[in-house]
Write a structure and sequence with these properties.
Strand content: under 5%
Number of helices: 34
Radius of gyration: 49 Å
Helix content: 55-70%
Shape: elongated
Structural class: mainly alpha
Length: 740
């Protein structure tokens, strides 16, 4: 190699002799005689002669092979090579070997540049120092001719035997590793040199099992720092192993050196419980990822202490190693729908945040997620069918009841308890299955809103048990998408809703409204209501709708399938943001009961909502109720709930008693007895608040009242007996009461 020749030339120019003894390692120079042997014509010549006779070079050209750079502090202990740093010694050993394999052209240039720098540094520092010393010494001791030629230097680079080569290589190898251990923070250039040298020696020169074990042990001592060295070593193994190169077409063979080393290393990593992030990068940057490596990563994922490391590694392999992408993605998808919560959570996050954005993998990921949801739907249907069959069997057993003795009863009870336990275990297992199937698809919906349509389709087909698991995940989905998501608002506005998917859409709108009610959301909900005629969609944004629309839809709001939803809507209309005043809302609710064809179920729901409103005393104070009752009394058709509301109002606010008596008198003038529903409430209210009103009724109504309402007769007789001398009572009334 060109750099090897330059290194030999540079070493020769420095007069390096590997065979010289440590004390005699000097530059040998051919110089003209300065005077007669054994003496000198100048002062101090005797000392110079004695130095030359001893075979030593003059001080002016004396040079020790030792770097002045403080980072090269470890020196070689070998007698013939003391003074060189470990990296340079390793190169000298390798240069002396005829069987040293050649490296690539780019690697040669890198080495040549680096070693030229080292040698230049050595020469520039030491030669200048030696020349300065030589100049000083010549002035004091030697007076040489001014044009004396430079000394001729000779160097011998011996051809070493295989045993010596191996010994020197092992020594250099161990010293380099020791130097790595001692220098925890070496310079970047020196560290790169050491890594390359260790990898080169272990892969090209020392290729036995002992070296492999030594390298693995060396790497695991400080895995974070030495993982790059190990990776470089494996790349060097791949580059020089001819047997491996010949097998690349047919895939890796377990007998190949690379596979053998990698298997040993991965096994040691598993045993050491290493959980450093360096493992992820190491595996992702391997020359080849074989089945053994994939199995190693799977084992990391199955270890609770290292599952995050394993899942990160799978993600990196799927992202950057196309050859093993399918295997890595398959395992990652498997863990993303497993029943272990923590592992599934990490895997789902890696897939949704990183892999799903890659077009080559998005289709496979979404198909897997949809398949798992479909499996969950089928499982829920199967469980529902089993539950119905079990219920029918239980019902049949109850109908066929027999007179077994106590022992049989005890046995039956035990069997019943065991069956109940099995049902509970099956239910718990089903919930785990549902959760494992839904987490991934909901996470993907945050990246692709069009998948929400698939959620609606699956929700419509699912049983109540599975639908509850859908609802649990809606708040997180909406929070991540946000109320400003144009894709989600467009979906609400335009996309069709399958039969049975209304509840899920309502839940999404409700969660959006909890974040903020924006004009875009109101517009989307209005379009959805216009298209589907589903009133419940209006509830979350009810106060943002127009007065006319709310008034038109109030009956449908009261009559919503779920009473809680109707209560939520009325509570919305009681808020300060409502377009209606409190008294106005109360009158509107009562007007719904004025219809003569109103159904009892609707009337019962309406009564429940009115009671809910009146319990809110912060909104419905005495003044608001008095205003509302007065407006109701002015209606041409009196509401059926009028008297009940009046009775509750007088009990809640006794200060309105005079107002109530005035209303009773007005009702007498409006012939309240013509409406049986109002008449019954009128009698109760009058007895409780002002019985005298009843004594002023027409005689036919008093007769009918006493005949048909026995509960009124006795309280009325007592009132008349006590107050006959206080108020004027007609003789006919006293006759009817038996008091005349």
């Amino acid at each position: 190699q060109p750099w090897r020749a330059k290194l030999r030339e540079s070493l020769a120019s420095m007069g390096f002799d590997p065979n010289a003894a440590p004390a005699q390692r000097r530059l040998s120079a051919k110089r003209p005689a300065a005077g007669p042997a054994g003496g000198s014509d100048r002062g101090g010549g005797g000392r110079a002669t004695r130095r030359r006779v001893a075979g030593q070079a003059p001080p002016g050209v004396e040079m020790k092979l030792k770097f002045s750079d403080p980072k090269f502090k470890t020196y070689i202990a070998h007698p013939g090579l003391r003074g060189l740093s470990a990296p340079l010694l390793a190169e000298l050993v390798l240069v002396s070997m005829d069987n040293y394999p050649s490296v690539g052209r780019s690697s040669s240039k890198g080495k040549q540049s680096l070693f030229e720098k080292i040698i230049h540094h050595f020469q520039s520092k030491k030669v200048k120092k030696s020349q300065a010393q030589s100049s000083s010494s010549n002035n004091d001791n030697l007076q040489q001719p001014p044009n004396e030629p430079a000394p001729e230097v000779k160097v011998l680079v011996p051809e070493l035997g295989s045993e010596v080569r191996c010994k020197l290589a092992y020594g250099a190898f161990e010293r380099i590793m020791d130097e790595n251990t001692q220098n925890s923070l070496p310079g970047a250039e020196e560290q790169e040199l050491r890594i390359n040298l260790i990898a080169k020696i272990a892969s090209m020169v020392l290729t036995d099992s002992y070296t492999e074990e030594l390298m693995i042990r060396f790497a695991l001592q400080d895995w974070d720092a030495r993982a790059p060295t190990t990776s470089q070593w494996l790349y060097s193994v791949v580059a020089v192993d001819k047997k491996l190169k010949g097998q690349l077409r047919n895939g890796l063979n377990q007998d190949a050196r690379y596979s053998r080393i990698l298997a040993k290393l991965l096994g040691k990593l598993l045993e050491s419980k290493e959980s450093s992030s360096a493992t992820c990068r190491f595996v992702a940057e391997l020359p080849f990822v074989d089945e053994e490596t994939i199995h190693f990563v799977r084992q990391l994922c199955e270890d609770p202490d290292r599952r995050e490391l394993g899942l990160d590694t799978l993600s990196e392999l799927a992202l950057y190693r196309e050859a093993c992408r399918t295997s890595a993605l398959s395992i990652l998808l498997e863990f993303s729908t497993c029943e272990e919560d923590e592992t599934r959570k990490i895997a789902v996050k890696r897939i949704a945040d990183s892999l799903f954005q890659i077009r080559a993998m998005s289709s496979s990921i979404s198909l897997h997620a949809e398949e798992r949801v479909n499996q969950a739907v089928e499982k829920s249907k199967e469980r529902a069918l089993q539950a119905r069959k079990a219920k029918e069997e239980e019902k049949n057993k109850s109908a066929d009841g027999d007179d077994d003795d106590d022992d049989d009863d005890d046995e039956a009870m035990k069997m019943k308890l065991e069956e109940e336990k099995k049902r509970e275990e099956a239910a718990a297992a089903a919930l785990k299955l549902y959760d494992s199937a839904l987490d991934l698809i909901f996470a993907l919906c945050t990246k692709r809103v069009d998948l929400v349509e698939f959620l609606h389709t699956s929700f419509a087909q699912a049983t109540l048990e599975l639908r509850k698991r859908f609802h649990l995940r809606v708040p997180e989905l909406v929070r991540k998408l946000g109320v400003d998501s144009d894709e989600l608002l467009t979906f609400i506005k335009d996309r069709p809703i399958p039969e049975g998917g209304v509840d899920l859409m309502y839940h999404i709108i409700h969660e959006l409204a909890q974040i903020a009610i924006t004009p875009k959301l109101v517009q989307a909900v209005a379009s959805l209501h216009k298209r589907t005629k589903e009133t419940q969609f209006l509830v979350p944004v009810l106060n943002s709708m127009g007065r006319g629309l709310i008034a038109d839809q109030l009956k449908q709001i009261v009559n919503l399938p779920k009473e809680k939803m109707a209560q939520r809507a009325i509570k919305q209309l009681m808020l300060p943001s409502s377009p209606f005043e409190a008294a106005e809302l109360m009158v509107m609710l009562h007007d719904l009961s004025a219809d003569p064809n109103v159904k009892p179920a609707f009337l019962k729901r309406l009564l429940s909502l009115v009671h809910m409103c009146m319990k809110n005393r912060e909104v419905y104070k005495a003044e608001q109720l008095a205003v509302a009752l007065r407006q109701m009394l002015d209606r041409q058709r009196l509401p059926k709930l009028l008297m009940r509301t009046l009775i509750i109002t007088l009990k809640t606010y006794p200060q309105l008693k005079d107002f109530g008596i005035e209303m009773l008198a007005t009702l007498v003038r409006r012939r309240v007895w013509d409406d049986p529903h109002l008449w019954k409430g009128f009698l109760k209210c009058a007895i409780e608040n002002q019985p005298a009103i009843l004594l002023q009724l027409p005689i036919p109504q008093i007769k009918s009242m006493l005949l048909n309402n026995k509960s009124v007769r006795q309280p009325l007789i007592e009132f008349a007996r006590v107050n006959r001398n206080v108020i004027r009572i007609r003789r006919e009334v006293l006759d009817l009461l038996g008091l005349n």
